[in-house]
Each structure stands twice: as C-alpha cells, then as structure tokens.
Amino acid sequence: MGAYDDDYRASVSDPNAFWGRQAAAIDWFRTPSTVLDDSAAPHYRWFPDGRLNTCYNALDRQVIRGLADEPALIFHSAITGARQTYTYAKLLELVAQLGGALRDLGVARGDRVVIYLPMVPEAVIAMLACARIGAIHSVVFGGFAATELAARIDDAQPKVVISASCGLEADRVVAYKPLLEAALAKASHQPSHCVILQREQLRAELVQPRDLDFDLLMRPGSCEPAVCEELAATDPLYILYTSGTTGKPKGIVRDNGGHAVALAYSMSTIYDIGVGDVMFTASDVGWVVGHSYIVYAPLLVGATTVLYEGKPVGTPDAASFWRVASMHRVKALFTAPTAIRAIRKVDPDGALIDNYDLSSLQTLFLAGERLDPDTFGWAGKKLGVPVVDHWWQTETGWPIAANPRGLEPLPLKAGSPSVPVPGFDVAVLGRDGVPVPAGQEGAICLRLPLPPGTLTTVWGDDNRFVAGYLSTFEGYYLTGDGGYLDEDGYLYVMGRTDDVINVAGHRLSTGAMEAVLASHPAVAECAVIGVADELKGQLPRGLVVTKAGFTGEDSTLAAELVAMVRQEVGAVACLRQVDVVAALPKTRSGKILRKTMRDIADGRPTVVPSTIEDPAVVDALTPVLRGLLRG
Fold first, then answer.
1. Nearest-angstrom CA–CA distance, 419 and 8
2. Domain at 506-630: CATH architecture
3. What is the phi-psi region of residue 445: left when phi exceeds 0, alpha when psi lies from -120 to 50, beta otherwise?
4. Domain 3-310+390-483 of CATH type 3.40.50.12780
5. Going along 321-473, which residue ranges are E strands?
6. pLDDT tens for residues 28-71?
7. Which of 162, 180, 190, 184 is nearest to 101 (CA)?
8. Phi-psi category of 481—alpha, beta or left, where left has phi over 0 and alpha has psi -120 to 50?
9. Over the stretch 280-322, which tens digit does the pLDDT of each residue have?
C-alpha cells in the first residue's frame, strides 16, 4: 500500500518516533522532550513536558506566517440569508477581545465555560477565546433541554455561561434564555455570569445581576485583549458530553497537545486540506464533528472553514449543501449519511445538483451513522467525486478508520470506512479477547495506547473512564461497535454490539439486513431492530421510509423487502415484518435511535434521549412498535 502502509506500520511499531515527527507540525512554546508517558498506564499521556497554546496555533501563527488577510471563517446562514467572511486577522482580534473580557470576569486557566449557542460565528469565537486563556470550554448545542443543560452545568461547574437570546429553525424561533433560566433553576451550581448574545429575531430580557450583553463585552477598548496563555500539552482543552448520556453526565476530556497534533495530521492525510483550501463541515459545534472539523482542524492548518446555519433540506430546499459548496468553492464537504439520505428522499434523481458549479468539490466525506452501499453509490454517481465513508467516535475525536486521501488514496469499498488510520491499532476480538480471523465478526477494539487526540479521561471520574472503556479486554479500548476486517485489511462496522441479535441461537447483524433494505430503489432510509420473541429469543423487524414520489402499495413494498432479505441474508434471518413509516427517530447528529425503538417494541420503560431531533416522531411510531410486540 506504499505511503499508507509505511505510516501505519511506523505508527503502531514505534509510536514514540512516529508522533514525535508529527508534533513538528505544531508550534510549541517548549518542544516536548518526551512523546509518550506510559508510567501511569492505562492513563497514557502524550507530550507531557511540552507547552503550547491551541488558539495560538489556530490563529496567531497563521497571521505570523502571512495569512492575516486570508479567509479563516465563512458564516453562511440559509435561514437569515447572512453571509460573512472573517479573515485570520479579524478572527484573532475578536477572539483576543472576548478572551480579555472573560479574563476580566474572573475566568482563569482551568476554569470552565459552558457555551450554549446556535450556529453563529460567536460560538467559534467563544471556543477559541477559552482556548486562548486556558479555560476549559464545554459546548452544549443550542436548544438542548433545560434538564440536560442543568446536569452539564452541575458536572462542569462553569464560572461563566455564554448563550444567546435565540436560535433559528426553518419554521420557528427557539428562545434560549428561558431554557437557560430553567436550567439554572434546576442546577445546584450557579455561574458567576451569563453572557447573552442578542439576536434581532428575538431579544432577551437581561434582568438578572449576572446577565451581561455579549456585544457590550466586545466593544473595542472595553478591556485589554488577551494574550495566549502558555499551557501544558496535558492541560484540558475541552469537555464534551456524549450524546447518549443518561443519569450522571459523561464528559469526554480532550487535552491541548495531543489534540492539536492529531488534528493537524488528520487534515493533511485523511482530508487532504491545507492552506487556502475550503472545508465545509455540515454539523453542529455541539457535536465532536463540529469541534474537530468546523472549528479547530481547518484553522490549525491555515484553511478556510464554513460555518452553516441551516438544514440539508427545507432551508429552503434540497440544494442547500450544493449552493454552499458552489458559492464558497468548497474542496471537501463533510456531513452525515442521514443528510444525504434526506436530500435523496426529496430529490431522488439529484436534479438540483446540476444547477450548481461543483467543480471545486473533490471529496464527500460521510460519518456519524452507518453508510449503506446504496447511498454511497447514489452520492458518488450524482456528484462525480469519491465518497469517503469514515468511522470514529466522540471519544476518539478524529477518525479511527478512513481512506487517507492526502496520504495515499486507496480503492473504495461500499459498506466499509476503508482502513485503520495510522495511530489506531485496530483489532477485532472474540468473546475470549483473542483476535478473530479475517472475515469473522467480533468486537472492534483499539490496542492501547490510544493515539494523541483521543479522550484522556472522563471529567472528574478516572475510574469511570477505566470501567467504561478499558476493563472488558485487558490492554484494549472497547469501541462498543461490532464488525470485521476483510482479507485486504478493510474494516466493516456492522453497528453497536447491542445491535447484534440472537435468533434461535444464530447471532445476526441488523446492519447486514439494513444494507439489503436500503438497496431497494423505493427506500430512503431504514432501520432493523430486534424485538423479544418467546420462541426464538429475538426476531428482526424492519422499518423503512420511502423516497419522495413513491406511489406503490406499502404492503407490496414490504413483501418485496422481506423477500430480498431472505435471498441476500438467508432464511435464518427470519425477517418477516417490515413497516413503512413516515420518519425514523434520530438525534440531531443523525443517529437513528434503535435502542429507543427496541425498548418501545419490547414494552420496556423508555427514556427518549434529550438529543432527539423531533420527539413527535417517537409518538407517531409508538403504536406501530407496540404492534410489533403484539405480532
């Protein structure tokens, strides 16, 4: 495999030497003399004696190297029509100003700041301002429920909360200030100040003594702009709570040094993005994808990042992504498979794509939800560019498996996120903890030490970090996903290990059945869940959403799908029931809530995750799912 094989072998055989070389891509105030500290294993630390500042690497050094007048951030709101470009010099000026204001509010190195903002430039500015002064930011995506916001405030104990008067959806204005006040009424911890960005669509009343107007803090001359704090590489950069959190929040901690080195490496090798390139990551800053590839990674390599406020469809149509890509000459577009399926559902022939000049677009990157081969094929055919499925987690912060477009583009295989990324020693283990042969499914694990940029612990709970991720198989991190490696070393991720069902003693992957359902020309998206059965233990049930314009009979389609699974997977799958539904419940990041549907179908008490995009979808599905149980 050439360059890829060289990097991968070097990264797993001698991680000290490999990551020591990659660290040269970052500017250090003190160059680390130690690359990996394994003295407290399994709590490994990268570059322990190095000192740096992430904001300095993202902004100051780009200005110093001559990029002051180059675009750093493009804000594109499909809802308000706003278009605004921030140069590296301007973004640095604003970040230093807010950093100084936070410092004057008493925020110091190691203090936490909760950021509860919509997809506006101030969210990026706030994150970078925290990084600049050594504060630890915890972003909670805008509009999150008050109870869940309160839990995160109590866990992180921020000195300051930065929020907005409102967020905007395609059809409504969401008032944030009442949600914040409700959260603070529930929380035990109280921040010293709440900084509120006033948006013209709905202004908030600032009546509490702790309330401050964001714009007033940003007035030139109101404070001394902050200089960069010199930080240890092991100092935390941010806390990010996992989307599936129930009970006590689980805050993933990312450090400064390993994070900067890993993201810079990923930009050049995976995404093939560097100085002057434009990257459009259609996600939310509240998710790990937004942290890594909207905010930090593009700026660390001197590229331009697009911040998009809107949806893939409905703001105003199914051409929103293509419009952004054409207008801003985007080289790489990164989104979730769910977004492409939503676009395809509305525009199944891809007719709207032809209305835009996408000659700058070289790659479509997809992650966050399993990419079915049918969507993979449709996107590649309609866009005429490589479609790169890649797989990673909130915990890892950057891709575990991908096709390294900037290192050595490899052949693409439908259904696979390609190969393990250098740094990630991927193994597929059986129940006995021993690696299984190629082609055999098992638990996907990562041999320790994890590479730089991955989680260092769970906020305030080292024991939870070890128990939750490192205790199942000694010497390995448990990803929680199942799959297999083929003879060529390509990884296939078949879904969460609890999505493997047991039908009369046969362990079957619901992901394999979903791939068959998704291949039907009438199916826009689908899910297969295992529901309890007295005779066989579990039985699979399918739910599908049809594409726009489908005029056939639901019963005929269901029969065709059952027959397809029988033919492709085998009679042992026992998939005999498929229901056509209007929508599937998903989180705002695009993950289908299979566990929630299983719980409803099995009659178990159900806690719908607070990250759900539309709770009404669950209400509409409940009668169908209860029917599955009775069936």
1. 10
2. 2-Layer Sandwich (3.30)
3. beta
4. yes
5. 332-335, 363-366, 387-389, 401-402, 419-420, 426-429, 442-447, 457-458
6. 999 999 999 999 999 999 999 999 999 999 999 999 999 999 99
7. 162
8. beta
9. 999 999 999 999 999 999 999 999 999 999 999 999 999 999 9
